[in-house]
Model the fold of this input.
Amino acid sequence: MEVSGKKKVLNELEQSEPIVNPLTPNSAYIHIPFCRRRCYYCDFPVSVIGDHSTGNTSGSIKEYVEVLCLEIATTPALGSPLKTVFFGGGTPSLLAVEQLRKILEKLKERFGIAAGAEISLEIDPGTFNLEQLKGYQDAGVNRVSLGVQAFQDQLLSVCGRTHNSDEIFAAVEMIRQVAIPEFSLDLISGLPHQTLEMWQASLKTAIKLAPTHISCYDLIVEPVTAFGRYYNPGAKPLPTDETTAQMYRLAQQILTSAGYEHYEISNYALPGHQCYHNRVYWENLPYYGFGMGAASYLKGMRLTRPRTRREYYSWVQQLVEAGGVVDGIQTSVTDILLETLMLGLRLAEGLSLSFLVKQFGEAIVETIWSSLLPHYHQGWVEVVGATGEVIHLPETQKLPRNGRLRLSNPEGFLFSNTVLADLFSQLA
Done:
């Protein structure tokens, strides 16, 4: 298709009726911003409270929980009871049990929480004890995500983490004693001074600890972080790009061989143990967001709250004065198309072609395919039939409308940024 033809197709798409997902939100993200210290790679909206403060002793945490509950109570309920709740941070395990219980009760009172809902809590080693963990479970938490990052004390120190490897194993033992059914573990590759041998050791140690879910994130050196001041991407002591690519391939090989399904670019799960809350994001579905810096996606509008406590508290007061009515940024049809592609191609199953045609039209799907063809020939993009078989298409053959588009594993996932950049250059 000629460039002018592509522009015509995109102009027609943009002038069409806005696409608003008909589903009501049934997921909520809760941001708990407090940390003992800021990790050197972190650019999240956090508030540092020192090594000895907790929800029981910190006035800042107590005040924040009150304002957070006020935001929840003021936000209009849009229908369905919550099926997933995710407490992220920050370090949510700095909350006292009663504070977490209060937030969950406020959510239940305002929106309802469905029976069997997935309720996830991010926790860090060294920030909780056995009694506290039991209390979280009694309050409703049935999934924890342990921020390990590495099993080498040298690497943990380089990252500015507040825990050591002994505290990791102690935390896992507590999780086992409490028998929380869903246990996820987070690792980071590409850290300063990290070698392939260190990464392999971390992966094998993680498998021995037998979590139901493992997340493997590649370090991104953000300019506003300590790492951004210390290091240049690709330069020592950071691993080379080729080494980080090998780390990615190694994780895919070792974890899938151990029975973990590589269901998303950075995520692995034993069968039946995917994170259903995060799938809400990847499937571009609506969700509530609460707390400092939290994002929400409701009625086709995206809204991100202020990233500092002072500004967030002022924003909540304005929300109360407005009776819960607040405007976000209306997503255009082109925005929704790009978000759908960017998020959906992160998943191992990729995107349904019939869905793309229904939502955006035949012409757009043909534009997408023409943009992806070079990467298809490279082996980074695959077409999958209705029964899951990989289809090898001649260049002149049309895409099967009952099939799916996906990135290959691991190479397509590894070079996903390149694929998406080329795709977006044709569509944005």
User: Anything to note?
Assistant: The chain has a mean pLDDT of 93. The chain has two domains: 3-18+350-427, 27-282.
